[in-house]
């Protein structure tokens, strides 16, 4: 059970499980290790798994018609990630998911999660809360992108993802903020100078 400490601590934020229910949850859970830059979902494919980041960092991103990538979310330890629409309907994904670091993942396949709902109904509540929270995050992100300046978006990024800046490249942060890496360098320089 120690191997699953992060996982069950995350679950315990919303539901309480008995030891027997934990054993059922583990019996349907799978794991994988991915390398930095390794894709676990490509846009156009079906999102077949719902991932929990045990260690490392992933990004959820989309590509525009010109091939430019736009980071929508970073998923560090203790985060869940999937293209929810694709996973729920088992249809083509709009988003891609890729490792920004070597990462250890736990995950439920679509079929195993459906089995888990039947065997431990509490998990339906857990994933409903998870998806509601994710939807709230996504809506707030849209509002942030249209209502805040680049400097304000950068400050919010630092608040939402403390210490992530030291772990991932500037180009990925700039993509998330909707600015160029050069403009991000200017914002960081101004911020550093104002703190002197």
UniProtKB/TrEMBL annotation:
Protein name per UniProt: Crp/Fnr family transcriptional regulator
Gene3D superfamilies in the cross-refs: Jelly Rolls (2.60.120.10)
Domain Cyclic nucleotide-binding: 34-117
Database matches in InterPro entries: cNMP-bd_dom, cNMP-bd_dom_sf, RmlC-like_jellyroll
Ranges in a coiled coil: none
Species in which this protein is naturally found: Rhizosphaericola mali
């Amino acid at each position: 059970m120690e191997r699953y400490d992060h996982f069950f601590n995350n679950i315990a934020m919303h539901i309480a499980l008995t030891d027997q229910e934990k054993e059922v949850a583990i019996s349907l859970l799978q794991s994988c290790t991915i390398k930095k830059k390794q894709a676990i979902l490509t846009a156009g494919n079906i999102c077949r798994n719902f991932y929990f980041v045990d260690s490392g960092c992933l990004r959820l991103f989309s590509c525009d018609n010109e091939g430019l990538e736009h980071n929508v979310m970073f998923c560090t330890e203790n985060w869940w990630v999937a293209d929810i629409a694709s996973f729920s309907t088992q249809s083509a994904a709009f988003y891609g998911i890729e490792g920004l670091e070597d990462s250890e993942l736990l995950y439920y396949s679509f079929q195993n999660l459906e089995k888990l709902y039947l065997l431990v109904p509490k998990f339906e509540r857990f994933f409903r809360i998870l998806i509601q929270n994710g939807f709230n995050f996504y809506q707030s992100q849209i509002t942030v992108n249209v209502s805040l300046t680049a400097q304000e978006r950068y400050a919010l990024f630092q608040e939402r993802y403390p210490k992530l800046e030291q772990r991932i490249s500037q180009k990925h942060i700039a993509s998330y903020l909707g600015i160029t890496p050069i403009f991000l360098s200017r914002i960081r320089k101004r911020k550093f100078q104002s703190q002197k």
